[in-house]
Amino acid sequence: MNPKPVEILLVEDNEDDILIITEALGEAKLLNLINVMRDGEQALAYLRGEGAFRDAKMPGLILLDINMPKKNGFEVLEEIKADPGLRHIPIIMMTVSERDEDILRSYSEGACSYIKKPLDFRKLQEVIRGFELYWTLVSSIPHR
Predict the structure, then answer these.
(1) The pTM is what?
(2) DSSP state of 52
(3) Does residue 53 form part of some domain?
(4) pLDDT one-digit tens code per residue, 75-122
(5) In a domain, 142, yes or no
(6) Closest residue by Cα to residue 87 from 107, 111, 105
(7) C-alpha 40, offset from chain centre
(8) Is residue 141 part of a domain?
């Protein structure tokens, strides 16, 4: 099975998590592009091709943290799913929260998956590798 490269938009404000996630995704060399946005407003500007992002390539997948500055993950999720030009993009909530309310809200507002980020470095790497294998080898996403 030959995996197709997936463009990922990582929306995360924690620098340590950004480093771990991008390194873990890069190790398997299945993904060709990972763009990182550090807050919700920046992520929406990127997706809408506004300002400095007017030439940005549309991602095939979004990894979205809940707790972020400016606009939180729920606000970003809601705006993406309300936009006919963006709602097709699969969104995976990736957060430290284990609250049932957050999980329920994520799915109710259109997230296709909810991943709890382990606090342990090695466990987070394992979670990212499993995620990557699923989204590149098992699941089908729209390619543009």
Answers:
(1) 0.84
(2) G
(3) yes
(4) 999 999 999 999 999 999 988 888 999 999 999 999 998 988 777 777
(5) no
(6) 111
(7) 12
(8) no
